[in-house]
Amino acid sequence: MVVLDPAHGGADQGARGESGLAESDIVLSFARLLRISLEAQGLRVLLTRQANDDPTFDDRSKTANAQRGAVFITLHVSSTGKPGTARVYSLAQDGGAPVNRGTGQPRTVLVRWDRAQQGYLDLSRKLAELIQIQMAQRFRGSAETPTTAAVRQLRTVAAPAVAIEVSSVSLPDRTQLDKMAPVLADSVARAVAAFRLVYEAGVK
Amino acid sequence: MSRGLKTTIAILALLVVFGLITLPSLRQAVQRMSATQRTEEQARRDVMQVPVSTPTDVKVKAQMYWLSTASPASLEATAIELPLSADPVERSKQLLLALITNAPSTSQRTLPPDALLLAFYLQPDGTGVADFSDALSAETPSGIQSEQLAVDSIVRTLGANVNVIRQLKILIHGQETDTLAGHLDLSGLFSVSPPSAAAAPASPVPDAPVTTGAVKTTTTTPARAPLSPTKQVPQ
Predict the structure, then answer these.
(1) Which residues pair with B91 in a beta bridge?
(2) Is B228 in contact with A114 (Cβ distance < 8 A)?
């Protein structure tokens, strides 16, 4: 199961370009295409939003946390950065309670809801690496390796989780972003399919 | 040539002449308006943001982290001479004000020029608390990378120049907020690394004139260097 999260929505448009491009609209169309590519790989897909609404961070996390063996991908478009590139993020280690990061299972029985991602950092980093390799190959100028950052949405997800941020809403129109969409969808689907083998072996 | 066409050409010619005559004054008016805008911004800052000056101020070469000119997705350490206090709280305020106002160029800014530092506190355990105005949240470009660079510049600038800060909490108008501008998590504490060899500690420069952007180091910090918000978790 892959949970796709088109970020923002509703009154929160996310990043806005001078030409009027809105992050919330672009990521929704990215998610729809990515859904098709993932389903073509035999994966089940859930979207955290289907239209122009704005679930809370926690509601989006709940969608993923309710699924066994889910993978969570939140989609973003930046305000800045080199246009036509994509960067993949996993959550930065927060230095909290120790967890068994190899299996994704916390050592303690109780895991704080607001730190749910801490048990999945290594798996998330692996997923981020696989996707970033694809991004570097398909979108010239993209980084070779993924980044860790304190991405709010990722913190409460109890599953391997990454954020993908495409540059950018500063483009004069959607043309370049629309051209990126199918390539992005295909690349991410390939990376998730590769990750699935690693992940499912661990979950079983 | 018909009479109507002649009239039209005459009117058009008159309009062109009128435009040529008024163009310089229009240009001057636009320049005056933009100058007024800068003045208003400056005036607002002068009223709202009182410069920090203490008896222990000494001119030092401070390491400031702004966007790299060569690679805008990363930070670059720039040494500038600043009068900095011996008191870590006042010193932190001076550094953050300089970070907002003294960027070498507009394109190297990491924080919005309208952002104000409302307060800075330092707890005995080395936790710094920086309270910024709403403008920090409202005017920082929305995006994971841009928000990370903004926070990274604050954390690294404090880390490079104030020895006692171990971690930093960022508040917006006195309140804890979920994110900086929709992406980066502000609910936790950010680890502050002490000065290292790469980011040399601030060193006194007695009697040196205060200039900005005077010296650039070769240190470039990639955006991917992780910021690690820490949370206090009961064991």
Answers:
(1) none
(2) no
pTM for the model stands at 0.80
- Residue A184 Cα, gap to closest chain B Cα (Å): 18
Once rounded to an integer, what is the mean pLDDT over residues A167-183?
94
Nearest to B184 by CA among B134, B141, B139, B143: B143
Task: Categorize the per-residue pLDDT at B235 as very low, low, confident or very high, splitting at 50, 70 and 90.
Answer: very low
* Token pair recorded at residue B36: 């007024």
Contact status of B123 with chain A (Cβ, < 8 Å): no
Instruction: Indicate which of A12, A80, A142, A171 best probes the interface with B, i.e. most B CBs within 10 Å of its own CB.
Output: A80
Asked if A143 and B143 come within 8 Å (Cβ–Cβ), the reply is: no
Which pLDDT score is estimated for B37? Answer: 57
Are A147 and B229 an interchain contact pair (Cβ–Cβ within 8 Å)? no
Q: Where are the domains of chain B?
A: 1-33, 58-230
The superfamily (CATH) of domain A2-203 is Zn-dependent exopeptidases (3.40.630.40)
Please provide residue B169's backbone torsions phi and psi, each rounded to the nearest 5 degrees: -110, 135
The values of phi and psi at residue A39, to 5°, are: -65, -30
Closest Cα in chain A to B232 = A96
The full DSSP string for B41-100 is HHHHHHHHSPPP--TT-EEEEEEEEEE-SS-TTEEEEEEEEEEE-SSHHHHHHHHHHHHH
Could you give the ipTM of this predicted complex?
0.90
Per the CB < 8 A criterion, the answer to whether B65 and B157 are in contact is: yes
